[in-house]
């Protein structure tokens, strides 16, 4: 049932976790469909990986907030690559550190539409093709914020608690099919996440001061490991944190 070279679709593949996953899975011989709003970045990445590893790639523009954008991207990717086996619903973001009553509509809608609606739209579009292939794996990229809430993160935490619920529900809904479902839930990781959230590079750098956080490749390795396990093994959830982080709010910072 498992193909020798699975076809993997990754949203949010222009940087961070998505780019790292693309690079690592390409090195394992996976064919890749890479999507992001920053389409020139994913096109360059797809071309680089195709040349480096001899895999087949497709790169396209996708904004997971919009159904038509997702449906078009998935359809074009499947047509170009000849099918689909693995979905990595990676696109997501945090915007601001507002208390609940201070959260502007712009930030509220950005997080809920991307982190919740975008995940549904991505999986809704891709799952029929995974079913047709007869073997597959769906990855949700959650967060430790989906397990423990914190001040200034009410909407972001709500969205990631939602991701956890969706992953658990889908796991029940596809039971009996040869489709695995995994949620990878990282803690502090140094990517563009804090730059996007805080809209200030100096403040973003301060988040990681005195800490050795996870890298994007640490999280990508979790995806690779789960994907490469024997077909009868499903890793439901992985919470992964750096050793300096004991909980969402508990960090060891070196002076």
UniProtKB/TrEMBL annotation:
PROSITE patterns, A to Z: ADH_SHORT
The organism's place on the tree of life at top rank: Bacteria
Pfam family, one: adh_short
Protein name, UniProt field: Oxidoreductase
InterPro entries to which the protein is assigned, alphabetical: NAD(P)-bd_dom_sf (IPR036291), Sc_DH/Rdtase_CS (IPR020904), SDR_fam (IPR002347)
Keyword terms of this UniProt record: Oxidoreductase
Keyword Oxidoreductase: yes
Recorded family membership: Belongs to the short-chain dehydrogenases/reductases (SDR) family.
The keyword Oxidoreductase is annotated on this UniProt entry: yes
């Amino acid at each position: 049932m498992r193909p020798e070279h699975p076809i993997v679709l990754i949203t949010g593949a222009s940087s961070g976790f998505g780019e790292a996953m693309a690079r690592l899975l390409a090195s394992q011989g996976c064919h890749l469909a890479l999507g992001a709003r920053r389409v020139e970045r994913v096109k360059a990445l797809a071309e680089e990986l195709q040349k480096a590893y001899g895999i087949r790639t497709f790169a396209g523009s996708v904004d997971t907030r919009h159904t038509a954008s997702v449906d078009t991207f998935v359809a074009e990717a499947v047509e170009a690559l000849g099918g689909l086996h693995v979905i990595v619903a990676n696109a997501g973001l945090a915007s601001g550190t507002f208390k609940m009553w201070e959260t502007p509509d712009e930030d509220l809608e950005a997080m809920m539409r991307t982190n919740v609606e975008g995940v549904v739209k991505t999986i809704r579009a891709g799952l029929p093709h995974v079913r047709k292939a007869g073997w597959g794996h769906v990855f949700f990229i959650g967060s430790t914020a989906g397990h423990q809430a914190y001040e200034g993160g009410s909407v972001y935490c709500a969205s990631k608690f939602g991701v956890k619920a969706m992953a658990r529900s889908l796991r029940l809904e596809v039971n009996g099919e040869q489709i695995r479902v995994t949620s990878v839930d990282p803690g502090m990781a140094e990517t563009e996440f804090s730059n996007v959230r805080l809209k200030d590079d100096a403040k973003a750098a301060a988040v990681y001061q005195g800490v050795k956080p996870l890298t994007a490749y640490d999280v990508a390795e979790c995806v690779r490991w789960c994907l490469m396990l024997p077909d009868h093994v499903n890793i439901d959830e992985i919470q992964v944190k750096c050793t300096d982080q004991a909980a969402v709010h508990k960090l060891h910072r070196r002076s």
